[in-house]
Design brief:
By secondary structure, the chain is α/β, with parallel strands linked by helices. The chain has 2 domains: 2-116 and 384-492, GROEL, domain 1 (Orthogonal Bundle); 188-343, GroEL (3-Layer(bba) Sandwich). The protein has 16 helices and 17 strands. Strands 6, 7, 8, 9, 10, 11 and 12 form a 7-stranded mixed β-sheet that branches. Strands 3-14-17 form a 3-stranded antiparallel β-sheet. Strand 11 (319-328) and strand 12 form a beta hairpin. Helix 3 (48-63) runs antiparallel to helix 16 (474-492) and helix 14 packs across helix 15. It is elongated.
Length: 501
């Protein structure tokens, strides 16, 4: 176990002072991020116990979506505490059971210091999203991104009844060019594809069809060659093709469709030039190369149904929208926006803009984190202070609790509580404060019953953190605590690591 703890410490220190790490991948691409889960995912980890920490960070990412760094830092500190307890000769089982008691008590303490929140309270939701964005590279844009995340989540759920948010309903579209200020929330559908026929770029009162078959001459299944010997035969082949395609296009027009989305096809051209020519004449806007995985989202958004054969192309399969148009983004490409959908299937699109790929990707990760924070509040409608306040509160309350226990247990619970101080002390260090004096002062204030005292990074000192509006969802803290403890307990139970080929 000591061997395990050593690795963990090294890893933990690596992750503690991250606030933006550049990394060169195997293929030489660079990732700039300060999202703990992303860093750990990209790291080359060989040690089995270290792999467990990467999994831990992933689990936190899935469960809460935020707090991915904290959870690894807490686990590291707890492992550190374990190795000290083991050196004193305390049996792993006792440590493990005491830790379980401590975490149960910890969840109680956290729940007690949280305060309920209503989803109608937009102000509070904004504060939570802003707090999440504060630590990100794009923090200066939080006044734009936070309201955007809140609105996006609010549009896709029924606030009264929702118990979770399906983030699949919020589509993030990345488009190079512009700056982060140009990000926008679109109530409807945004496609990055270009309009295939330049003649029609704007359609009002759109009737939208989504086809999964090809508008091109059919191919036979067998490889065959046709030898055309004279001009008349050649003419017949071409005429046949023309008639076939014209027939398809006429059926599409007859159903009243004026915007046609065509799924990508691997086998042959999804859209022949001839078909495009006919569609253009009939004033039908065509968008091809629709990805297979986007189809579900498109159908949900505009209420269309995918059509797999021309015979099914009937008016009731079409979706409707007020407007479908190709929008010019000042000099940096075009987007297709379909807005005013009559059947709002409760979906929204967020268009993320940025001057280069790295910025866009980081912005996307940050928006994802902010969305997750609001999702946490939908799942568990309670908020808790940030800024290291909950961890110090836990340390103080667990020390009190340990006095009610006897023997070794008391000692282990106490050690568990002390280990949690790593979060405020790291936070103090990253804010440029003296970690030791800061943590001591925090402990004193919490011992005197000031539950909301935390580190205010912006002002560089200790203050009542709720008044400063530094808040995070209760779910993030609880999930971080329980997941970290579970991982530590499972590492504790490892006797030996046997390398197998």
């Amino acid at each position: 176990s000591n061997y395990n703890s050593q690795t963990k410490k090294a890893k933990n220190n690596k992750n503690k002072n991250k606030s933006g790490t550049k990394r060169h991948g195997q293929d030489g691409d660079v990732t700039i991020t300060n999202d703990g889960a992303t860093i750990l995912k990209q790291m080359q980890v060989l040690h089995p116990a270290a792999k467990m920490l990467v999994e831990l960070s992933k689990a936190q990412d899935i469960e809460a979506g935020d707090g991915t760094t904290s959870v690894v830092v807490i686990a590291g500190a707890l492992l550190d505490a374990c190795s000290k307890l083991l050196q004193k000769g305390i049996h792993p089982t006792i440590i493990s059971e005491s830790f379980q008691k401590a975490v149960d008590k910890g969840v109680e303490v956290l729940t007690a210091m949280s305060r309920p929140v209503q989803l109608s309270d937009r102000e509070t939701l904004l504060n939570s999203a802003t707090t999440s964005l504060c630590s990100k590279v794009v923090s200066q844009y939080s006044s734009l991104l936070a309201p955007m995340s809140v609105d996006a989540v609010m549009r896709v759920i029924e606030p009264a009844t929702a118990t979770s948010v399906d983030l699949q309903d919020i589509k993030i579209i990345k488009k190079l060019g512009g700056t982060i200020d140009d990000c926008e929330l679109v109530d409807g559908l945004v496609l990055t594809q270009r309009v295939a026929n330049t003649g029609v770029t704007r359609v009002e009162k759109a009737k939208i069809g989504l086809i999964q078959f090809c508008l091109s001459p059919p191919k036979t299944d067998m490889d065959n060659q046709i030898v055309v010997s004279d001009y008349a035969q050649m003419d017949r082949v071409l005429r046949e093709e023309r008639a076939y395609i014209l027939n398809l296009v006429k059926q599409i027009k007859k159903a009243g469709c004026n915007v046609l989305l065509i799924q990508k096809s691997i086998l042959r051209d999804a859209l022949s030039d001839l078909a495009l020519h006919f569609l253009n004449k009939m004033k039908i806007m065509v968008v091809k190369e629709i990805e297979r995985e986007d189809i579900e989202f498109i159908c949900k958004t505009i209420g269309t149904k995918p059509i797999a054969h021309i015979d099914h192309f009937t008016p009731e399969m079409l979706g409707t929208a007020e407007l479908a148009e190709e929008v010019n983004l000042d000099g940096s490409g075009k987007l297709i926006k379909i807005t005013g959908c009559s059947s709002p299937g409760k979906t929204v699109s967020i268009v993320v803009r940025g001057s280069n790929k790295l910025v866009i990707e980081e912005a996307e990760r940050s928006i994802h984190d902010a969305l997750c924070v609001i999702r946490c509040l939908v799942k568990k409608r309670a908020l808790i202070a940030g800024g290291g306040a909950p961890e110090i509160e836990l340390a103080v309350r667990l020390a009190e609790y340990s006095r009610t226990l006897g023997g070794m247990e008391a000692y282990c619970v106490r050690a568990y509580g002390d280990a949690l101080e790593v979060i405020p002390s790291t936070l103090a260090e990253n804010a440029g404060l003296n970690p030791i004096s800061t943590v001591t002062e925090l402990r004193n204030r919490h011992a005197q019953g000031d539950k909301m005292a935390g580190i205010n990074v912006r002002k560089g000192g200790i203050s009542n953190i709720l008044e400063e509006l530094v808040v995070q969802p209760l779910l993030v803290s609880i999930s971080a605590l329980t997941l970290a403890t579970e991982t530590v307990r499972s590492i504790l139970k490892i006797d030996d690591v046997v390398n197998t080929r």
